[in-house]
Amino acid sequence: DAGVIxxxxxxxxxxxxxxxxxxxxxxxxxxxxxxxxxxxxxxxLLIYFNNxxxxxxxxxxxxxxxxxxxxxxxxxxxIQPSEPxxxxxxxxxxxxxxxxxxxxxEGSRLTVL
Amino acid sequence: xxxxxxxSPSLSVQEGRISILNCDYTNSMFDYFLWYKKYxxxxxxxxxxxxxxxxxxxxxxxxxxxxxSAKHLSLHIVPSQPxxxxxxxxxxxxxxxxxxxxAGTRLTVKP
Lengths: 113, 111
Known about the structure:
Chain A is mainly beta.
């Protein structure tokens, strides 16, 4: 089992560009979470899915952010257009059903110049 | 709105001594609490958890205490080791729903 896989690990882009972060969860897990880590706010929940359906996206900062989970094996987080304040580490995590612990990917470090 | 709060951004202890990390929460619907450990350039990893029906859970050197009336939990590490140096996140969830994290506490264990 390779765990939760995120790509890219590092992304440097210029303000105004579109950014797409990708996540491949562990097979068989049915909940997927996107978090953003910043120095000031720690781990912020952006959005989570249950059985591929978005349940709560109230943490998504603005309309510039969108997330999809077209199937149980793949999810994307898109920022369009990106801004310097979006610079952070973005984590994807999944969870076996119930109130179990989350399994995190290694994160995607985004720098917007 | 920070539903889970870790008010100490950092903690430094001597090797062999006890480390106590604290966490407060505001949502009375939370029924499951967890601690995660994070090393640089890695994702957080699960450390220990506790259900709201308990007030203590122990796993080796790690013990989590829950005080529901005070909406407070703590993680005790005894004895602390240099390899425990990391950022520790407190997290809470309500049923099969989202999981909220605190801002983290950076623990440094000095040899």
